[in-house]
Amino acid sequence: xxxxxxxxxxxxxxxxxxxxxxxxxxxxxxxxxxxxxxxxxxxxxxxxxxxxxxxxxxxxxxxxxxxxxxxxxxxxxxxxxxxxxxxxxxxxxxxxxxxxxxxxxxxxxxxxxxxxxxxxxxxxxxxxxxxxxxxxxxxxxxxxxxxxxxxxxxxxxxxxxxxxxxxxxxxxxxxxxxxxxxxxxxxxxxxxxxxxxxxxxxxxxxxxxxxxxxxxxxxxxxxxxxxxxxxxxxxxxxxxxxxxxxxxxxxxxxxxxxxxxxxxxxxxxxxxxxxxxxxxxxxxxxxxxxxxxxxxxxxxxxxxxxxxxxxxxxxxxxxxxxxxxxxxxxxxxxxxxxxxxxxxxxxxxxxxxxxxxxxxxxxxxx
Length: 366
Hints:
By secondary structure, this protein is of the alpha/beta class. It has two domains: 4-168, no CATH class; 181-358, 3-Layer(aba) Sandwich (Trna Endonuclease, Chain: A, domain 1). It is built from 15 helices and six strands. Helix 3 packs parallel to helix 7 (127-142), helix 7 runs antiparallel to helix 8 (145-167) and helix 10 packs antiparallel against helix 14.
């Protein structure tokens, strides 16, 4: 009997192989799926969206079908054990080939789901992508061997082609030496507020600013590079970002651009309790007034279940730190944030948003 490890490795090898073939193809190799055809539109709806989960469901289903020809992803999706096959196999192949993906893509949209149909697609966002996944898999399952192989090859070709549009996207460059730090800082802050990328960008900007501020000191900035999708409790972190001296945390920061609810404070308390840091000061860096309207703050502070939480405005904090950085440190912050935005897992909407904010800096002189 094939071991779990061997099975996951086989899944990784399969996806690597299919993407290897895809790299040698062009649209001309698939004349039956030309623009305007049903299959072309299905894969456009499925693949060319920010949501990664539906692509993940299809990749997992196709891999499960390769490993077991009797597998039926439409009526028994969990029959292929999607979590281990994706997280310990497929994910690595997608990463190696530069395909945008999350660590648990199929589970994010099909957790505890066996039947992939219209009922499952109902209410998913975007629903067109969920329906496209269902209809594409129906085509695959109802097709004979040769057509099935063509459909699968075309899916992987479109997946590869889409990844190339993302990794090849040209971000506007910022010559910070030609602008004041506050001008660039204001634009960076505005960009991260309009395109927060589920909270990842504000968190990353704060981490980079603090890193620049403390780069020559003995204080270390920890956190900020991880995805903001994960909670601090599950990731065993005391906060989003914290400062350490001699390996010991001294100050904790939570960064958010969403309303801070009592539930968020409870989550923070749970993280502090589980990591043994209840005694450390915690500061929420957020949009003051907008994110704190449900809390009765007193001088920027709030007492909750015996713990005091402090609050400071995100924009004010960022611009204050910008004013303390040297031109060289400002340039480093800009360069690192641009690299973060360029990453394959950052949405095309956010990449385009970067150019919306910064293309004008090519001709302006401040």
